[in-house]
Design brief:
Distance between the termini of chain A: 30 Å
Low-confidence stretches of chain A: none
Structural class of chain A: alpha/beta
CATH architecture of chain B: Alpha-Beta Barrel
Number of helices of chain B: 8
Radius of gyration of chain A: 17 Å
Number of strands of chain A: 16
Shape of chain B: globular
Distance between the termini of chain B: 28 Å
Strand content of chain A: 35-45%
Radius of gyration of chain B: 18 Å
Mean pLDDT of chain A: 96
Strand order of the largest sheet of chain B: 3-4-7-8-9-10-15-16
Mean pLDDT of chain B: 95
Number of strands of chain B: 16
CATH topology of chain B: TIM Barrel
Oligomer: heterodimer
């Protein structure tokens, strides 16, 4: 892990409140794995004070990319940044997904799709991959073409029914899970309620699930013990022990 | 040629920059970002006699120019701490100061005795933000002059290690506590710890912290910290270690001008993992530029 004062390559609008930023970071790009994150200083002063963690969305050559939703002070400042502007990042941080050779189900909720793009890019194309993407509405369904281009089957669900099936994506997972061989690995990222549901479905069908969590963070490197998550063996840190956890390990 | 060395009791620090407890672990992680041996000292995360699991999440949250935390002194207890960290801490070429907290004088003393026998320990920082020991029920040691003095005095009798008493700002008159710690035999006082604070999310109507309340740190508290250091500088003879929102070398110089012999850098480590290193360099350059030879030429030299 290093801290890099570098520059922005691009910062594009993906949808109304989602942006994609590419950052020049060859030292991080060469090291980083899907599911790991970078810790970004969004502003130049003390407001906001702390860094913000973002999963790596894509990495190739000299660049690492993040896909981020405009949620608060930090992301609003990030969205205003222009190519060639300076940016201060730390990474690669966290553990990342463990890629299994077996068939894979990727489950994304909203902006939780971000790390799953890096994941499919790294996966062995021979194994069958199904990607389930859920969001509130069609505009929040992101990256589906990318997954299709990688040869994955894509299933979409929106809460308002504006794209794909109407309802929660976990309903689609529930149906699918019954037909899956037990060695199938589920990789999920999204809101906690979705991840809990994914965990329950996985348990019910004897499947293994890796879930990527989000928590407020300060240091990002396991020092401050701020981003605690309850597991069956006590508190663990999302930044260092995670952000990817085996779903059965967590105390939902 | 400048000499940034300072002394805390018998302990010599090569410069006045120290990492603050709970913000630097044992230094292992930050050693990947810069050579932590450059520091005057490292204060390790507070340990307690027994393991503590810590508070429910969320444990940290952001506030304007500051952060809230309620970690709850999560640690594996003194014995595991020694077992897990003595090898790394022994390898360091800077002073290792162990922050300790306990619920009673006896427990504090037992910890001090245990640490006295460990070669890697250069000094102890007494985290006085622990529950009170009887004189003022419901208060922390750091909030009651009599208890503060008793705790320091009891530990003093058990160890020859340099003792630093870390004070809470949540008191009517911090100089009263500072003087008590001095009278109890502390070699230095370190101030300030975080301010008791809380935050609210109006959408969920929940507190920002799982523990409801926590401590406020960061640039937001710096002006209050400076004032308390200035007050204490005019009240005690022992060295003062200034803490509170130090993000840059300029902040550190302000604390020294208000009477601090050394500074501790805390929250800033989270924002910039090399901030301690940058602060050391910045202080060195400031001393060069102003032809200052040692810290005493700057300490308390506020022009009034």
């Amino acid at each position: 892990m290093i801290r890099l004062k570098t520059k922005i390559i691009s910062n594009e609008k993906v949808s109304q409140d989602v942006r994609k930023m590419a950052i020049y970071a060859p030292e991080i790009s060469v090291e980083i794995k899907p599911g790991q994150f970078i810790h970004v200083k969004c502003g130049d002063n003390s407001r906001p004070l702390l860094r913000r963690p973002f999963s790596v969305h894509c990495y190739s050559g000299d660049a690492v990319e993040i896909l981020y939703k405009l949620k608060g002070e930090g992301t609003k400042i990030l969205a205003q940044k222009k190519p060639n502007e300076a940016i201060d990042i730390m990474g690669p941080l966290g553990n990342g997904f463990e890629i299994k050779p077996s068939g894979a189900i990727l489950v994304a909720g909203g902006i939780g799709v971000a790390p799953l793009v890096a994941l499919i890019d790294e996966m062995n194309k021979k194994s069958k991959t199904t990607v389930l993407i859920g969001a509130k509405n069609s505009e929040e369904i992101l990256c589906s073409e990318h997954f299709k281009n990688k040869g994955a089957e894509v299933i979409i669900a929106t809460e308002d029914g504006s794209l794909g099936k109407k309802g929660l994506i976990t309903a689609s997972l529930e149906n699918l899970a019954k037909q899956l061989p037990n060695e199938t690995e589920i990789y999920a990222c999204g809101p906690n309620a979705m991840l809990k549901e994914v965990s329950d479905i996985a348990a019910k069908n004897n499947l293994n699930a890796q879930v990527s969590l989000e928590e407020h963070m300060a240091c990002g490197i396991g020092v401050c013990l701020g981003c605690a998550v309850k597991t069956k063996s006590g508190y663990k840190m999302v930044c260092k022990d995670g952000p990817v956890f085996n779903s059965q390990e967590l105390d939902w | 040629m400048q000499n940034l060395k300072i002394k805390i009791g018998k302990l010599e620090l090569k410069n006045p920059v120290i990492s603050a407890s709970g913000t630097f672990g044992c230094g292992k992680e930050y050693n990947e970002f810069f050579d932590v041996n450059k520091l005057g000292a490292i204060v390790t995360k507070t340990i307690t006699p027994k393991e503590r699991v810590g508070n429910p999440p969320p444990r940290v949250s952001e506030t304007p120019c500051g952060m809230l935390n309620a970690i709850g002194l999560e640690n594996k207890g003194i014995d595991n701490f020694i077992k897990d960290n003595s090898e790394f801490l022994s390898s360091l070429k800077t002073n290792v100061i162990i922050s300790i907290s306990a619920e009673g004088t006896k427990e504090f003393c037992a910890m001090a005795e245990k640490l006295q026998s460990q070669k890697f320990v250069a000094g102890l920082e007494i985290n006085m933000s622990c529950p009170n020991l009887g004189h003022a029920p419901g208060k922390m040691c750091a909030q009651d002059a009599k208890s503060a003095k008793e705790v320091v005095f009891a530990i003093r009798k058990k160890t020859s290690l340099p003792l630093i008493a870390k004070l809470s700002p949540n008191v009517t008159d911090i100089t009263e506590i500072a003087v008590s710690c001095q009278d109890g035999g502390a070699d230095a006082i370190a101030l300030i710890n975080t301010f008791p604070a809380m935050g609210v999310d109006i959408n969920t109507k929940k507190p920002l912290l799982g523990n409801i309340t926590g401590g406020l740190s960061g640039p937001a508290i710096k002006p209050i910290a400076l004032k308390m250091i200035w007050d204490c500088y005019n009240a005690v003879k022992i060295p003062i270690i200034g803490i509170g929102g130090i993000m840059t070398w300029q902040d550190a110089v302000e604390f020294i001008l208000c009477g601090a012999s050394a500074v501790q850098v805390g929250t800033s480590n989270f924002v910039n993992p090399v901030s301690c290193d940058e602060i050391i360099t910045g202080i060195k350059n400031y001393f060069d530029k102003n032809k200052l030879k040692n810290v005493s030429e700057l300490r308390g030299k506020l022009k009034i």
